[in-house]
């Protein structure tokens, strides 16, 4: 593994902070139920919460049950692509390659995340069953034909706290 630079923390306003903190609460809920500590919230352009979800991999055995895909599975059948284009997806951790792809397919155009993938690797360690594909969600979003705004890492101390002692060593 080559050492990657740590991305700088980005400021969030009160509204983004509120929903990102909710995503972090859901990450802690996920952990208390035997899953990896990840949570996600999708909020519409008018501030309506469209979906809340957490990682359910441990509960269900479904390796695709990441918090973001779970939230998108709730919101996508119930809302039009036009509605979702104005929505923001909040994630307690930087979306993985799969979730970044799901965000693209959902037509959600704005993402705010807590802890970044580079810092998460300190918790994942060297175990192959915990490592991620080392591609930033921004690399996926940059390949999208429509712009997808991405803010993060943000609220780093709070987002990182969910992961303390939460991974196998
Ligand atoms: Zn994911």
TrEMBL record:
KW Zinc (keyword) present: yes
Gene3D superfamilies, sorted: Cytidine Deaminase, domain 2
Pfam families from the xrefs? Answer: dCMP_cyt_deam_1
| Domain (CMP/dCMP-type deaminase): residue spans on this chain | 14-128
Top-rank taxon: Bacteria
Q: What is this protein called?
A: Nucleoside deaminase
Q: Which CDD domains match?
A: nucleoside_deaminase (cd01285)
Which organism encodes this protein?
A: Pigmentiphaga daeguensis
PROSITE patterns in the record: CYT_DCMP_DEAMINASES_1, CYT_DCMP_DEAMINASES_2
């Amino acid at each position: 593994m080559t050492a990657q630079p740590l991305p700088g923390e980005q400021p969030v306003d009160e509204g983004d902070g509120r929903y990102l903190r909710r995503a972090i609460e859901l990450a802690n809920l996920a952990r208390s139920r035997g899953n990896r500590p990840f949570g996600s919230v999708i909020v519409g352009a008018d501030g309506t919460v469209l979906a809340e979800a957490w990682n359910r991999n441990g509960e269900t055995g479904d390796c695709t049950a990441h918090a973001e895909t779970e939230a998108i599975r709730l919101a996508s059948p119930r809302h039009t692509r036009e509605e979702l284009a104005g929505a923001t997806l909040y994630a307690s951790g930087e979306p993985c390659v799969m979730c970044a792809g799901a965000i693209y397919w959902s037509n959600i155009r704005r993402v705010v995340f807590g802890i970044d993938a580079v810092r998460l690797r300190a918790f994942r360690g060297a175990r192959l069953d915990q490592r991620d594909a080392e591609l930033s969600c921004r690399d996926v979003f940059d390949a999208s034909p429509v712009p997808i705004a991405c803010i993060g890492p943000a609220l780093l101390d709070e987002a990182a706290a969910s992961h303390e002692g939460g991974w196998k060593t």
